[in-house]
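Hi U.,

Before I forget, here's the chain from the pilot set. I'm dumping it here mostly so it's searchable later in email.
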Amino acid sequence: MPDMTPGVPSALSPLVRRIVAPNPGPMTGPGTNTYLVGIDEVAVIDPGPDTKKHIDAIVGAFENGDAPFALRLLFWMVMKSLLVSL
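Structure:
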């Protein structure tokens, strides 16, 4: 079973990585699931809460040469924080 530890990237397939945010609750279970999909050009799907710890985990999961090309966002503030970090 893939890791559900918040902040730890987990490979779900060769093309999909997941990072669980540190925001457990009734609507998020162990935390919001953020997905990085692709190789070289990576889509970030549902970047989760606007916390430095989670944004750092997302940025840290990018491998050399990876570049984000699409963001599916639920919250505008997360997008601003993530783009500033990259």
